[in-house]
Structures are given as C-alpha cells and as structure tokens.
Amino acid sequence: MSDHVRIYEVGPRDGLQNEDMLIPAERKVALIDLLSQAGFEKIEATSFVSPKWVPQLADAEAVLAGITRKPGTDYAALTPNMKGYERALAAGVDEVAVFASASEGFSRKNINCSIAESLVRFAPLLDAAKSDGVPVRGYVSCVIACPYDGPVASEAVRDVAQALFDMGCYEVSLGDTIGAGTPESVATMLETVLPRLPAERLAGHFHDTRDNALDNVMAALALGLRVFDSAVGGLGGCPYAPGAKGNLATGPLVALLEQSGFSTGIDREALAKAEQYLRSITASA
Ligand code: HMG
Ligand code: MG
User: Fold this and answer.
1) Which H/E stretch holds residue 9?
2) Residue 256 maps to a domain
3) pTM for this structure?
4) 62 near 30, Cβ under 8 Å?
5) ipTM score here?
6) Is 238 a catalytic residue?
7) Does residue 1 belong to any structural domain of this protein?
8) Could you tell me if residue 36 is inside a domain?
C-alpha cells in the first residue's frame, strides 16, 4: 500500500467560508499563493455558490483571477449547480467539486433540496465537466452524524458515495461535518463503504470539533485511505452546520503523517509562513 498521502488543502474554502468578517480578495490571494509555495497538489481555493448563502466567497472570480498558479498544483472550487459550474469554468479552475449529504436535514439546510434532488441537479454538471475534461470531486457530508437529524446510517453514506462515483466523480471525500466521529465510528462507517468503493478513490474530511480528527485519520489510514482534507491553521467550519468548528489543521496532520512514516511532499517551513499570514488576516485562526 502506498506510503504517500495526498493532503487536499481546503482552508481557503472550508476555512474562510465560516469567517464572519469579510476578508478582501487580495488577502485570500496572498494566502493561496503562500499555500502554493508549500507544495500542495490540490488547493480548494473558493466556492461558486450563491453569494446570498455564503457572502464571504462572493469574490470567487477575483480570487481565481489574482492567484499565481504553481505548476503541479490544481486549484479547485465547490460548484453546487450549473450556474456555479459555468462561473468556475470561466474563472479557469482546474477541477470542481459537487457536495451532497448522507442526511436529509443537512442537505435541505445546506443546498436547499433533498438528497435525491441534489443528485439530479449534479447530473448535467457532471456531463458538462466530462465533455469539458474537467475532473469532478464529490463530497458526502454528515457521514457520522447530522446537526439536524442525529446519527447517520453508514449505508446512506455508502449509497450517496456510490451515486457520486456512478455519475463520474473521480474521488469522493467523506465529511464528518460536525466532528462527531471517533476512530471506532469512522472505522464502522468505512467498513460499510469499502466493500463497495475502493479506498484509493476515497478521502477523509474530518472536522476537529472534539479533537478526534487526527485519531480518525489514523483509523482511516489503517483501512487504506491515502487522501485527507485539512485546512491551514485549523480554520473554519460550515455556516449551515451549527457546531462544526474547525477543520482538521494541516500542520498537525503533516506532522502526524510524517512521524508515522508517510510522505506528504509538504514543505513545513512554507506552510508555517501561510499559517502566520492567516493569523494576521483572521479573527479565529
Ligand atoms: P436556492 O436559493 O435554492 O437557489 O439555493 P436558486 O437556484 O433558487 O437561486 C437563488 C438565487 O441564487 C438566484 O438569484 C440564483 O441566480 C442565485 P436571484 O434570482 O435570487 O438573484 N444562484 C447563484 N448565484 C451564484 N452562483 C451560483 C448560484 N446558484 C444560484 N452557483 C444553492 C441553492 C445551492 C445555490 C444554495 O443553497 C447555495 O449556494 N448553497 C451553498 C451553501 C454552502 O456553500 N455551504 C458550505 C459548503 S458545504 C460544506 O462546507 C461541507 C463540506 O466541507 C464537507 C463536510 O464538511 O461535510 C464540503
Ligand atoms: Mg467541511
């Protein structure tokens, strides 16, 4: 099994989306440029969602236009519908991500539709991306528990993840949106998903509400996952998931992986510069 772990840096999106104070686009650009220097293969730069729903990321076009693209780094963005996809494509993203939920309550609060409706909405986006040659990542939120519906059945996670693969997502990231997971519950969930879907195409996205995220990464590593999402400085959460405090912080994740014998390709000194800059531009990092 590979000893390389890909870290998908989601701070500029999953981190900043939760900041109340509007951060000017040029500061987001500067943060992304510092992250690019740290050697990430993937940086989720922003979201092309409704600016009424997430005002902080209303400047997605300006952010993508401002960054200095580093060869070898893919710049990604969330796209909930065709309108978002078209905006993202015009802005020159390298890949997009659709986001579904394993729980109905979160689906309605986050994207204003049922799970089934969200999949119908994603289908034309996946078709367009295929003909445009744009890779699409999928997210499944609330893989352990939902802030509205409570505990979530692992079979629901498996079925939504399977639907996203069937539509053409190259990878599906399993989101513990409110950080409810423990190594045991994460392993139980993965043991339901893995007989159907290969570990090489799954990612772990663990919010760190209860300080369990690193332990959850270890549980997922033991079951073969080699891609993890994290945010510089542990910033963030989700405006539609009360209690979803921080994301798993990238620095401690890199440290844990490297201590455990995995390579990440991340330059820790460069990452520290991005963390330092983040602290200077946000209230919560
Ligand atoms: P809606 O209100 O049902 O959409 O929202 P609508 O199609 O009826 O459109 C309403 C208005 O929004 C219209 O404008 C549209 O043009 C506009 P109006 O006519 O009123 O002026 N609109 C858009 N504008 C720009 N870009 C777009 C877009 N789409 C519609 N793409 C919608 C539905 C999905 C748009 C909305 O619910 C939304 O934007 N939700 C996004 C919420 C969000 O970003 N949540 C956080 C990300 S998910 C997350 O954090 C979880 C994750 O990290 C994994 C985990 O941790 O579990 C990924
Ligand atoms: Mg998240």
Assistant:
1) strand 6-9
2) yes
3) 0.97
4) no
5) 0.98
6) yes
7) no
8) yes
